[in-house]
Amino acid sequence: LVASTGIGVVAAGVAKAGARRIVVAGHDGGTGAARWTGIKYAGLPWELGLAEAHQTLALGGLRARVALQADGQLKTAQDVAVAALLGADEFGFATAPLIALGCVYLRRCHQNSCAVGVATQDPELRKRFAGQPEHVINFFHYLAEDLRALMAQLGFRSVAEMVGRADRLRVRRDTAAAIAKGALDLRAVIGGSQISGGDALIGGGINQITAEIDQTRISADSAGRRIDDHALPLLKDAMRTGRAAEAKMDVANTDRAVGTLLSYHLSRPGAENAYGAEEKTPLLTLRLQGSAGQSLGAFLAQGLEISLEGDANDYVGKGLSGGRLVVFPPRGSTFLAGENIIVGNVCLFGATSGEAFINGVAAERFAVRNSGALAVVEGVGDHGCEYMTGGRVVVLGRIGRNFAAGMSGGIAYVLAPSDFDVSLLANTETVALERITDDAEAVWLRGVVQRHAELTGSKRARDVLADFDQLLAQVVKVYPHEYRRAQEAANEKAAESCKEHKHVSSDTAAQSGVADIEDAIADDAALVKRAARLDKLRGFAKYRRSGDAYRSAARRVNDWKEISSRQTRAQLQTQAARCIDCGVPFCQSDSDGCPLGNVIPRWNDLVFRGRWRDAFDRLMATNNFPEFTGRVCPAPCEGACVAGIGEGNSPVAIKSIEAAIIDHAWAAGWMAPTPPLQRTRFSVAIVGSGPAGLAAADQLNSA
Question: What is the C-alpha separation between 232 and 598, in angstroms, rounded?
Answer without folding.
Answer: 63
